[in-house]
Amino acid sequence: MLKKWNVTEYINLYRAKDILNNKNRETLGLCIPVDVYVQDPYVAEMNQGAALNKIPITREPDLMDGPTSARIAVVDYNADTNHLEDPVHWNNRENRFELKRNGKFVSLNRNHKNTPQFRQVNVWAIIQRVLNMYEETWVLGRSAPWAFEGNRLIVVPHAGFLPNAFYDRRSKSLQFYYFGSEKRRVYTCLSHDIISHETGHAILDGLRPYYIEDSSLQTTAFHEFVADMTAILSSLRNNKLRLQMAEETGGDLSKESLVTAIAEEFGEYTAGRPYLRSALVPHKIDKVKDNSNPYDWSQVLTATMWEILTRMVARRNEIITLREEKRTVKQTLWWAVNRFRRVAFQPLDYLPPVDVQFSDYARAVLLADKVAYASDDFHYRALMKEVFKDRGIDFAEDEDQTDSLYFYAYDIERISRSRTDAYHFIHENRRQLCIPAEQDISIIDLYQTNKTLPGGGKLPREIVLQYVWREDVPLKGSEFGPLAGRFASLLCGGTLVFDGRGNVLSWIRKPGTGNQESGGRRRRVHCDEERQRGLRRRTELLNYIAARVGSGYVGFFEGGRPDEIDTRSPVVAETRADGTLRLEVTPHLRHWIED
Amino acid sequence: MDENLLIRIYDVGFGDCIYARVPDGQDHFHILIDCGTSAPADPILKEVLNDVCTMLPEIEGNKQLDLLVATHPHADHIKGFNPEWFEDVNINRIWLSAFMKIDHPQAEKTLAFQNLAHATAEALSKRQGFHLASGIQAMLARSIWNPGALQALREGFAQTSGITPQYPLYIARDLADRQNAEERALYNICFEKSVTTFRGFQTQGTCLRVLAPEWNIDKYYLGEGLQERFSFFDPKMLQMEAYKASLETMDESSEDMILGDASSKSRRTPQLKNISESDFRGLQNRLLYAGLAFSQKDDDLKNNTSAVLLLEWGGRRLLFTGDAEWQGGGVKKDRNNSTWDVMLHIPQVKEILLKPLDFLKVGHHGSHNGTPFQNGGQETVLEKILFPNRTHVVVSTVSGKHGTKNPVPYPALLKELGQLAINSRNYPYDHDENLQNVNQPQRTDLEPPVPGKAVRYVEVQIEPVQS
Questions:
Q1: Which of A241, A431, B218, B255 is the most exposed place for a label (fewest CB within 10 A)?
Q2: In the predicted structure, residue A552 carries a pLDDT above the cut 70
Q3: Per-residue pLDDT, B139
């Protein structure tokens, strides 16, 4: 089938891939069937039903050895041995990956599962799938950007010997390490959960690049939450795993399953338990409020979202039963797959550009649901509010205050034309948006979405605009240790979401402390309240930095040299040329290693 | 002859150099424990050694040192063992920690680990355009080979001094238990109270006991967990043959087998076709984080195999702890255990250890993990060994240079020691504001200069117990 397309024809066909279903894509030769581990080798050993699985990966027109696709380049370099492994060979004519055996290329298959080339393809295929999962029209409805300069994420499947894997923006890479004895070697690049978790970090970093700054515990925890949620929902998307889940749970998602357990092999080996983290913990904010570990915090939000999703399924089943309709468990889970991704990830567009808090996410979840399903016949939103509240994630529903915005006349087409045009709009409306006059503003992202419902219904086109500024916060007092006398940054800004006609759907912001107009006709009363919020934020930031310093979490770069590193500190403080500090989480200490 | 025991703890910057003059019969017994610094060795250590030499007796134009001890192979403890500076010194005995024995069968895995860490540290420290935070730089500097000093300690000093029997003696708590009677006699040691004890003094009651390390380094200090996690038998990982061949002759080519130089194209690295050279260089540099993990663990391993010595003289007890570390969680077979935890785990050692001391040279430069304090472990230690009317406590350290999470020296430890030391001081200025106006033990970095001397030291004189 494939051979009949020439290059031009194939590229044209490829452009139409989004409107074709999997079966059509396979028939047209738009997919590559690839063997991957459903979870990881440990689970595969324990559970033959969840061993290797053939998954379809969209075949890009210019695929290369590596594998190397438009957004991902696998570089199999081992820093310990300075060895560059032969990349897997892509045979475009035969539509398959190959590896060399006795001087000849042979088709890569599951019999080669112990070869580096199999692992190269395994890690690449899962990252492709995760990226695709986010970009689908009923999730983000657009391409997800990376946070670094360039558009290809470098993936290193055998980076060296460590019980770790991490996303590192500075080297544009995902690094997967291996560990254990030869008899029991654990390759993190074979763990579906670890791969998708790391990819989740990379994707969130692209969507909200300021979240990498350690501006608050909840912001750092939110990164972990999105990464864990990516692993869970990517697992749920796997047909084989979903079928097994259906058998194991009978459709009751509150039961333990391979999907809710994260990183089984890694957890078994390093922590001595059957998984590293779970989505089924009963924790509430109260339990972790005195805890400075972001992973414990993230687990609360993960469990909250899983409970919401679980209860949505249960409610839907109740209503279907009342209506005397019938759905198989498989059908229910398929519905859940699609609904869950939308509920969990579509709200990312409504998040502030900086300093996200769990309450911001909760509000965004409700808003995204409202935009998609205005009527809410099954009362899912009441259910969501109940779960958020029960878990201790409080938020004021009316904080959006879009009604109070009175912008000068504007043309949404002009705003969406370029970042500079968007800047002019923001600048003209500084007073409405409570942006201090002296602050220069960056438009850090401007994009449009093209979302649909899983059934194909179109959602309104959205124009999303993110603006940011920084306010200097002097660090005075012994509680800041070696940071005393320097300036931290209070990250401020907002995300404005318009519909295609220019109506404001959402304005979520992180106000600053700068003074607004003190009187007269141009004074905006709502900005007084905003400033008070900004002052509270500044106090919280100072307390947070002092606590970080006090607990010894902060290491330092010297003299603003960007390549300097401190491998032991979970957070590093870098001094910029302007004298301000940036606090960032150290990539390789971000997770997996447990002290 | 002066009847008091004299100890000088020199200010060498961040490092240790301790001289002890022990009254012995009609004479003195002269001991040098460690001689190193994190700073350049010359001139500071050279001047310190000159001062030590003024204390040594001279025979036929050569100064006589009775015992030289290197507690562990960190540069800040051995950098000063420059053969040129010891040309006029006859050394009668050389003791090195058992970990420094290059063919030690029960330290094979730990040594392999050390070699990997050395190679990594060398490669990292030489890498162009790769700047490291100061704490990491200091750690790498400590880990890197000190070939001159190691060579002198392992072979050179014994040869030039022409001493017999064969030295160095690689010491461990249970060394004497492994030796036959003839060997013990040759080295004047015995296995007394289950610890190796040197009885080569003229005075009958004087002895020097070795409380650590244990002979089986791999078992106690590496731990099964670490052995497993770092997979010492994976030839691809460690390239063991390359390490073994290059133990003493680590050169550019053997390093390159382990870590390529990201600043230039490695000859073994094939051309990449899917990313640019600059992206690859950036990637290589960042990937070296992994190597640092080895260096960090090696740093702990070296400290934990420190020789810990107890000198008993004239009814007095003096403890020298090298850079022994303390975790406080007891001994577990699957983890790398700390020296203090191992000592407290062995009942016979614990019995000897937990008695009042007259002198404590605080270990690990006053780090948070060098001394069991604040009752943080399974065993209450300090209040059993330190007494305000009896114990001299000295810290060799430099404030404000090391550590932000756990600064060195560690304020809480020094405050506690200050309460328990007979020689506590309230220094007029301390870099760490947590130590302003508090009692703390005597410190090498804060003591006033010694009049008429080019070097600075804390000197402690201890009288024998009156019988």
A1: A431
A2: no
A3: 67
Q: In B, residues 177-236, which contact A (CB 8 Å cutoff)?
A: 228-231, 233-234, 236
The type of residue at A487 is F
What is the DSSP annotation of A428-489?
HTHHHHT--TT---EEEEEEEE--B-TTSPBPPPEEEEEEEEEEEEE--SGGGGGGTTSEEE
Contact B284 A77 (CB under 8 A): yes
User: How distant, in Å, are the alpha carbons of B20, B392, B413 from that of B360?
Assistant: 13, 6, 14
Measured CA to CA, the distance from residue B71 to residue B386 in angstroms comes to 23
Average pLDDT over residues A405-423: 89
Angstroms from A254 CA to nearest CA on chain B: 35
| CB-closest option in B134, B405, B433 to A478 | B433
> What does residue B195 show for φ and ψ, rounded to 5 degrees?
-130, 150
Q: What residues of chain B lie within 8 A of the CB of A564, using their CB?
A: 131-133
Considering only CA atoms, give the Rg of chain A.
24
Whole-complex ipTM: 0.86
Which residue of A62, A84, A584 is the best one to mutate when testing the B interface, meaning the one whose CB has the most B CBs within 10 A?
A84
- What backbone phi and psi angles, to 5 degrees, belong to B173? -55, -40
* HSE-CB for B95 with a 13 A CA cutoff: 29
Q: Which residues contact A409 (CB under 8 A, 6 or more apart)?
A: none
Q: How far apart are CA B37 and CA A53, in angstroms?
A: 58
B324: left (phi over 0), alpha (psi -120 to 50) or beta: beta
Over residues A214-241, the pLDDT tens digits come to: 889 899 999 999 998 998 888 888 777 7
C-beta of residue B18 within 8 angstroms of C-beta of residue B10: yes
Q: What φ, ψ does residue B152 adopt, rounded to 5°?
A: -65, -45
